[in-house]
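To close the chapter, one final illustration. This time we ask the reader to focus less on the individual chains and more on the assembly as a whole: which components sit near each other, and how the overall shape emerges from the parts.
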Amino acid sequence: MSPDMTAGDPPVHGEFVALCGGVGGAKLALGLQHILGQKLTVVVNIGDDFDHLGLHICPDIDTVLYTLSSLSDQSRGWGRADETWHFMEAMKGLGGETWFQLGDRDLALHVERTRRLRSGESLTDLTAAFAKQLGIRAQIYPASDDVLRTMVHTPDGVLEFQRYFVERRCEPKVKRIDFQGAAQAQTTPAVERALSSETLSGIIICPSNPYLSIDPILAIEPLKDLLESRRVPSIAISPIIGGKAVKGPTVKIMMELGIGVTPRSIAHHYAGLIDGLVIDDQDAMDTEGADVEVFTTDTLMIDLDTRVNLARSVLAFIGELSSAKS
Amino acid sequence: MSPDMTAGDPPVHGEFVALCGGVGGAKLALGLQHILGQKLTVVVNIGDDFDHLGLHICPDIDTVLYTLSSLSDQSRGWGRADETWHFMEAMKGLGGETWFQLGDRDLALHVERTRRLRSGESLTDLTAAFAKQLGIRAQIYPASDDVLRTMVHTPDGVLEFQRYFVERRCEPKVKRIDFQGAAQAQTTPAVERALSSETLSGIIICPSNPYLSIDPILAIEPLKDLLESRRVPSIAISPIIGGKAVKGPTVKIMMELGIGVTPRSIAHHYAGLIDGLVIDDQDAMDTEGADVEVFTTDTLMIDLDTRVNLARSVLAFIGELSSAKS
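The assembled structure is written out below.
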């Protein structure tokens, strides 16, 4: 790859699919939406989803919805801006569970989603309806309408994702991660259509946690098959910057699982699913024997500009890979 | 009745059961709780209950819970004090239903109640748990754990209670009111125990709307049977003051149903169920041929003092009726 490729305009012909978890992935999705608008489809992890207080909560879909509609709280990193917490205060007064914070504004999404699911609507359809209602241009789809749950095996036993992530603050050591329901889970017609579209130009695996956020998507065999049989370039953005993760337990988990904290490990993890890997300027990767092209740039997204810049680099990289292929 | 009977202390030996709807009834219940503490059992209307946004909402139980725990909003007349409305704002943004206002703090009750009902707990048990959690001394019980729905027949068709009361603001003319599910509805062991207790000293029908708030309770045959076979005095407080109702559509409905807006109509309505009627100083009632004793006092409850004063008068009146009986 020539280092000057970011100078030109990105190739915005055709459509793009981004696989995405929560906060980190959503930042890039926002940058991509800025350039691609409705030509972007975001396929979101559902392994974090859970039922809490009788409500169906989809943390990653919510983060993507809030980020792409600019409703998200920038400093807290999750939930909505201008949030209040009176529901939680009152719930505490009633003796209810309060370990998982639900803001007053945020609650509307959970209540309305739960109502619509109970009335028989699919998660795909209601998520699309919310996205439209919130003025989001990109398509946002759950990876599946089936139940798939990320389970974290620890010395303290098997923990549901939110119990591990929120209640236990990622403290227990991760021995293994698996995905309950994955064997039965199907992808959706909407995701299938996006990934097999004649006008698809590229696939992007966002810099989300590979083990907790992207693997649950890849655990859906029919979806993984579509990625493996792709006819367009697929690239991933390494979530590692200078041997660290921007946020979240990626590095901690890699160390606990005995995986070297290097871009090479990320490339190896996505072997067969990507043609290129974007790594940070602070990192280096020996591409000898590696099956992927590597593009190095500043991957830290601190504001809208850096998000759009990374998105532009990613799309240019895909354009290069595409030209090289044809 | 001698007019000086309010001067003495009320008879607080034994227990009392109050039948109660929403706001007006809850005010007297608060006054009664002030004197009686845990010797008071409040049996609350469930005809207004409905499912909304997937949540089970019990407006009258909520009003009683908030009033008796001093959490209620004094000026608005319903819901909680210090309330915020961010959930509703967000729900509007998602295109959800917003005709029924749910405050952020108030929501906790609906979400937690719905969760507990779905987990198999009875409305009676969870209401008792909420009351305890909120530091309420009185017992608060729903009139039934079965489904009973107040339906308002109007020229525009049959309206569910909240559609009539909130969405249509009581505007449609009432032709008839009935109670869906009443024929099958049972009362509860808790209500039965309270009404047949050896230590029961009196029954009080609060100044709630007789047609919309008390009739749904009386529509539960086993509960009505217990009232009819009572061995202690039962009294009602007329909700009419000077030919008007303090709040709500009582007078409008009486006129639409062709019922004279007089205390006598109230006495007639509760015939067989009460031994005494408390009416306001501004009203008069010719007791000739009437089957009830009448006690006249100031029934307008504008603050805690007036609520406690009315409660004291009511208990004194029951004491008089009790002495007269024995």
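The interface with chain A takes residues 53-55, 80, 82-84, 86-91, 93-96, 103-109, 111-112, 114-115, 118, 129-130, 133-134 of chain B (CB under 8 Å). The CA atoms of residues 105 and 250 of chain B lie 29 Å apart. With these observations in hand, you are ready for the problems at the end of the chapter.
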